[in-house]
Amino acid sequence: MSNATVTNATSSTTIRPDEAAHFGKLARDWWDPKGSSTMLHRLNPVRLGFIRDAIDLHWACDVESANPLAGKAVLDVGCGAGLLAEPLARLGGAVTGVDAAPENTAVAALHAEGADLDIRYTPGELGSLGLGHFDLVTSMEVIEHVADKQAFCFQLAAHLASGGLLVISTPNRTLASRALLVEGAEALGMVPRGTHHWDDFITPEELAELLEAAGLTVTQTRGIGFSPLKGLQLGEDMSLNYILTARHR
């Protein structure tokens, strides 16, 4: 791939204004565990468990350490109001959060200040912010909302430092996800209507190909499934949602 192609991909617009506006309207309710982001509050501990294990494995950390990200720069892309950024900061990371909706980053900054956490938040298009490189890049439930998935993957790769770790989670495009995550969850009020568009979901194989084109290699993929008895949990079933790690080739 030519340098011109890479430059065009990393500078392409990925933000959909209607998506940014949708999530911006939810900003003030984001930290309410019984509000519109209830499912994210339930999902967050599962994602954090995976991320912590991935950090320990990737950098051979002491699993008993409370600060495995000490001395590491962390970028959370599509950070919302900071549900993931704050725990990553508590793990010792120097965290930067980026989101398409300025309403989200404003609420995130206020919440971090109240929690006495030093997190840098900035709204805007990732490829145009000039943020540099990061040891850990995360993007949770974001790629299904972007305008250009390939350009988004190039932007993530461009911000990942040599030897760094990328973690992405997203819904899978299956009949099960359409029935449960879109038609079911939105109909029951568990997720705000208009949050998900099933046609924009991406399969693990498709995402791996996009990351490969961006110069990254997927190193681990786990499913995030639901059990009536145990709730959301990591496992082999990727029919609803999945989370993966990747690194530079």
Automatic annotation (TrEMBL):
HAMAP family: UbiG. It comes from Aurantiacibacter atlanticus. Keywords: Methyltransferase, S-adenosyl-L-methionine, Transferase, Ubiquinone, Ubiquinone biosynthesis. Pfam families: Methyltransf_23. It catalyses: a 3-(all-trans-polyprenyl)benzene-1,2-diol + S-adenosyl-L-methionine = a 2-methoxy-6-(all-trans-polyprenyl)phenol + S-adenosyl-L-homocysteine + H(+); a 3-demethylubiquinol + S-adenosyl-L-methionine = a ubiquinol + S-adenosyl-L-homocysteine + H(+). It is an enzyme of class 2 (transferase). The keyword Transferase applies. One of its GO terms (biological process) is methylation. GO terms for molecular function: 2-polyprenyl-6-hydroxyphenol methylase activity; 3-demethylubiquinol 3-O-methyltransferase activity; polyprenyldihydroxybenzoate methyltransferase activity. S-adenosyl-L-methionine binds at R47, G78, D99, M140. Pathway: Cofactor biosynthesis; ubiquinone biosynthesis. Belongs to the methyltransferase superfamily. UbiG/COQ3 family. The gene is ubiG. O-methyltransferase that catalyzes the 2 O-methylation steps in the ubiquinone biosynthetic pathway. This is Ubiquinone biosynthesis O-methyltransferase. Its EC number is 2.1.1.222, 2.1.1.64. It comes from the Bacteria.
